[in-house]
UniProtKB/TrEMBL annotation:
Gene3D superfamilies: 2.160.20.120. Residues 139-270 form the DUF4097 domain. The keyword Membrane applies. Keywords: Membrane, Transmembrane, Transmembrane helix. This is DUF4097 domain-containing protein. It holds the Pfam family DUF4097. InterPro entries: Toastrack_DUF4097. The lineage of its organism: Bacteria, Pseudomonadati, Spirochaetota, Spirochaetia, Spirochaetales. The chain crosses the membrane at residues 14-34.
């Protein structure tokens, strides 16, 4: 039988110490604070021992620190210019809502005021979430910061660029000349989006667009999922690595000429499927709209 060496115990203890240090570092990086050491007080005056739990903090109580943390969270809002043409939003973990309304305005909820940057002039508005770590509160859990943008009827957009991390996004009644969406691991739902040109990218998240209309589009997915329902104009491209793309195109099959290039993935067009490596086409080459498809290990399905 093999005995236990003292060195084995020291080795295990060292490993546990390293793991603990890593966990503490992760906690501090997510906005945690060192609460001080906990000790047990006891009182011998009486028939027995009575224990009292206490905390020692050189800078105040836990409640004071929590209240100070909460006080840094603000509701920030403003009015958008009537000549607004460009919107540029970059979010790390926050959520986004863009919708139509009677007047043009924006409002940021639950973002730490020192973790965002906003800029607005006569024809543009930009919003950047620079720090997401402060949104964790030990008392309330994770806050869910959200940016709301309301567009009035006077707005005529030329350029909308959205760069998203892991939040939820809702888009509705959005019309612009150029539309760009970069989605990391978030969830995007859009309805009634119209653009002259569109560039859609999702890494590991999901994008679902309904009642959409793009004159031309470039759609790319990594390991994410994209669902599109609407119309495409004269020339568009769709590619996927390990993800899935599903499209329901309006206008009928006669409107589209489709070229496809497959790796080890699959392509399905109007009920007909192709699997494995290969190239092919579907539809009439003289059709008004051309769509180029490319798959790696993923799948693309097109219905009409």
């Amino acid at each position: 039988m093999r005995g236990n060496s003292p060195l084995d115990g020291l080795g295990k203890g060292f490993v546990l110490l390293v793991v603990g240090a890593v966990l503490v570092a992760v906690g501090l990086s997510m906005g945690g604070r060192w609460p001080g050491f906990m000790h047990w007080r006891f009182d011998r005056s009486g028939d027995g021992f009575s224990f009292e739990r206490g905390w020692e903090r050189s800078w105040g109580s836990a409640d004071d620190a929590e209240e100070a943390d909460i006080s840094r969270v603000e509701i920030i809002e403003g009015v958008l210019p009537s000549g607004l043409e460009k919107i540029d939003v970059s979010l790390a973990a926050g959520s986004l809502v863009i919708r139509s309304g009677d007047s043009s305005a924006w409002r940021a909820l639950d973002f730490p005021s020192d973790g965002i940057r906003t800029d607005s002039d006569d024809d543009s508005f930009s919003f950047e979430e620079r720090d997401w770590k402060g949104r964790f509160s030990s008392r309330q859990g994770f806050r869910m910061p959200k940016l709301e943008i309301t567009l009035g009827p006077e707005i005529r957009l030329q350029d909308v660029h959205l760069e998203l991390g892991a939040g939820n996004v809702e888009l509705s009644d959005l019309e612009t000349l150029r539309f760009s969406l970069e989605n990391g691991a978030g969830s995007v739902a859009g309805r009634n989006i119209t653009a002259g040109s569109a560039a859609l990218e999702t890494a590991a998240g999901s994008v679902v667009l309904t009642a959409a209309s793009f004159d031309s589009a470039r759609i790319e997915t990594g390991a994410g999922r994209l669902q599109f329902e609407g119309s495409l104009g004269d020339r568009s491209s769709v590619s996927t690595g390990m993800g899935s793309v599903g499209m329901k195109l309006s206008g009928g099959a006669d409107r589209y000429f489709i070229r496809f290039e497959r790796g080890l993935g699959s392509v399905s067009i109007d009920g007909k499927s192709w699997n494995g490596a290969g190239n092919g086409t579907a539809g009439d080459s003289s059709a008004p709209a051309t769509v180029n498809l490319k798959t790696g290990l993923g799948s693309i399905r097109i219905d009409f």
